[in-house]
TrEMBL record:
Gene3D superfamilies: 3.30.70.260, D-3-phosphoglycerate dehydrogenase, domain 3, NAD(P)-binding Rossmann-like Domain. Transmembrane segments: none annotated. GO terms for biological process: L-serine biosynthetic process. This is D-3-phosphoglycerate dehydrogenase.
Length: 613
């Protein structure tokens, strides 16, 4: 899927790390690619979020073009299916470095554009800091992203994508395998027989048919477990505060309260994510409220269970058996009492480990990472809005306009007057519900912040960076009577309560105000303060306010001509003949100071400003 050219402007990557330390480290990087100061993907300042990539080949086509000139580098820190690795290798330099220490990971991460992990790699704030702005994407080849510091990723403007669907069935099948193995003591009986014993009476199990299974977390895995357990003749209830009742009912599952689920179930299977609100959700109090002799399966995350409390519940008989695939600390300590408990069946986080799931997950993440590096929106983005491809493609010229208006308006602010409130207006004939402006808001933010700071802004971190800088950004829709086919007629950007270095840009309310439109696919400036103009927003711009009279255009034009500055566009807007007028002049080159001074010296010119777009 080739990226529409204007979208290349959407989400600029930060400037490449060119520090001597980074270069030196790179020289010693072994498997890593020879250092390029900026891979083409980064040099062009591409956006890195786009839509779902439908298939491997299309997703990578655009990357292929990039690859001809230079390739991004991807670090893979855990075993990934071959198909995914092959796909990555077609378009990127791939460094597979498993079992890195935290220190080794920090050392490598500043040398790569993307990082692919599974559940064992802890992608902490320190990792993002060590990346020094180069890392653009973290791909989690699986579902749970509790090992990635999402807040730190967002602050760093680093996209996090996961592969949320390809291992669902594997995890559900593993939960069923553990359920049945636990109920029939398969693991214990196997170990006993291999130790030379024949203990038929000791390993009498319990039947599943007719028993109540409570599924805690009715998401992708939980619902697949429910389907399978129904086939085993179990009665299924589920607790999930966010699951749609209809979806549960459709497969014959009742959604019940937490207390009802834990107090009535014979078996409890955990399928919720580890979040601050689910951490140690299963503690002493929860176990005390369970039906005596309950059996528990955990294929979700060890951290949702207070493992000491579980041990106590096993010892006092509240919980008669547990089957655990996941642990708070992985691997668990060798002398873990839980792991060695005779009523506990354990596996080393194997839920997603089938060859089918691993191939699927690897392909899913390789496509998402390559697509993101190439500048597409990721349908599986975890820390960024998901904007469908068709919406993005339609909005792409407005994306450029939004950033240019941001860049323009901030350069009209007088030095020293802090910007606080930004109002963005969208004039459109479209129903506001059919107009997704998140990308445009991010681009106005980028345009305003980047020229005045060292921050780089993209769709991942725009709202965060704005908030950090105390910038209040509000949006307003102006509904027009027109054809909804054109998404936006014009975009206005207002800065309130600031002084302007160009008084002509002040609206009647005293705000700095600019407005632009897309014409023939190109961004145009159409309003400055109260003055209508029409100048293409490309290259550089000179805004000049003067008393409307003949000859000024010629004078300014000849000064620029003498200084070899090519004028690509010129437009004059005035309030009334003979009154104030604004001249907007698009210039290819930045005029020398002398030329600007000569323009300022023209007697009827009252003020002027030079703007880099
Ligand atoms: N052991 C393994 O190898 C694997 C583990 N997993 C883990 O399984 C879990 C579920 O994965 P998916 O089903 O794909 O995720 P999902 O996002 O589709 O489902 C999670 C469900 O949990 C629900 N939930 C959130 N908070 C809850 C709470 N306090 N109480 C009850 N429900 C709550 C959500 O509403 C959602 O429906 C995750 O923790 C994931 O990391 C997934 C795949 C493999
Ligand atoms: O996808 C998940 O959430 C898993 O827990 C699977 O983890 P893994 O990729 O096997 O380390």
């Amino acid at each position: 899927m080739a990226l529409a050219p204007p979208l290349c402007h959407l989400l600029a990557a930060p400037p490449p790390s060119t520090s001597a330390a980074a270069d030196a480290a790179h020289d010693h990087a072994g498997a890593l690619a020879p250092h390029r100061r900026a891979s083409p993907l980064r040099r062009r300042g591409r956006l890195f979020l786009a839509c779902r990539v439908p298939a491997a080949a299309p997703s990578a086509r655009g990357v292929a073009a990039e690859a001809a000139a230079g390739r991004p580098t991807v670090l893979v820190t855990e075993k990934l299916g071959d198909a995914g690795l092959e796909l990555l290798r077609r378009f990127a330099n791939v460094d597979c470095a498993y079992e890195l220490t935290a220190e080794e990971l920090r050392a490598k991460v500043s040398l790569v554009d993307a990082l692919v992990v599974r559940s064992a790699t802890r992608v902490t704030r320190e990792v993002f800091e060590a990346a020094r702005g180069r890392l653009r994407v973290v791909g989690r080849a699986g579902v749970g992203i509790d090992n990635v510091d999402l807040q730190a990723a967002t602050e760093a403007g680093c996209l996090v994508v996961n592969a949320p669907t390809a291992n669902t069935v594997a995890a559900a099948e593993h939960a069923i395998a553990l359920l049945a193995a636990m109920a029939r003591n398969v693991a214990q009986a196997d170990a006993s027989l291999k130790a030379g014993k024949w203990q038929r009476n000791k390993y009498v199990g319990v039947s599943l048919v007719g028993k109540t299974l409570a599924i805690m977390g009715f998401g992708k895995v939980g619902s697949e477990v429910a389907r399978r357990a129904k086939g085993l003749g179990m009665d299924i209830i589920s607790h999930d505060p966010y699951a749609p009742v209809d979806r549960a009912r459709a497969i014959g599952v009742d959604l019940v309260s937490f207390d009802e689920a834990i107090s009535t179930a014979d078996f409890i299977s955990l399928h919720m994510p580890l979040t601050p609100s689910t951490a140690k959700l299963f503690d002493d109090e929860t176990f005390a409220n369970m039906k005596k002799g309950v059996r528990i399966i955990n294929v979700a995350r060890g951290g949702v269970v207070d493992e000491d409390a579980l041990l106590r519940a096993l010892d006092n008989g509240t919980v008669s058996q547990a089957a655990l695939d996941v642990f708070t600390e992985e691997p668990p300590p060798k002398d873990s009492k839980l792991v060695h408990h005779e009523h506990v069946t354990v596996t080393p986080h194997l839920g997603a480990s089938t060859s089918e799931a691993q191939e699927g997950v690897a392909l899913e993440i390789a496509e998402a990472v390559l697509g993101a590096l190439k500048g597409e929106l990721a349908a599986t983005a975890v820390n960024a809005p998901m904007v469908p491809a068709e919406v993005l493609s339609e909005l792409s010229p407005y994306v450029v306009l939004a950033e240019k208006l941001g860049r323009l308006v901030v350069q009209l602010v007088a030095g020293g007057s802090g910007i606080k409130g930004v109002k963005i207006g969208y004039s459109s004939s479209r129903d506001p519900d059919d107009l997704d402006t998140r990308v445009l808001r991010a681009m106005v933010t980028k345009g305003i912040i980047e020229p005045i700071s060292s921050a780089f802004v993209n769709i991942v971190n725009a709202d965060y960076v704005a908030k950090q800088r105390g910038l209040r950004i509000s949006e307003e829709r102006i509904l027009l009577d027109g054809s909804p086919e054109i998404p936006i007629d014009s975009i206005q950007v207002h800065l309130a309560n600031v002084e302007s270095k160009f008084a002509g840009a002040l609206s009647d309310e005293g705000d700095i105000r600019v407005e632009g439109e897309v014409k023939d696919g190109k961004p145009h400036l159409t309003l400055v303060g109260p003055f209508s103009v029409d100048v293409s927003l490309e290259g550089n711009l000179i805004l000049c306010r003067q008393v409307d009279q003949p000859g000024i255009i010629g004078k300014v034009g000849s000064i620029l001509g003498k200084m070899n500055v090519n004028v690509n566009f010129m437009s004059v807007g005035r309030t009334a003949p003979g009154k104030q007028a604004i001249m907007a002049i698009g210039v290819d080159e930045e005029p020398e100071k002398e030329a600007l001074k000569l323009i300022g010296d023209i007697p009827s010119v009252e003020e002027f400003v030079f703007i880099k777009l």
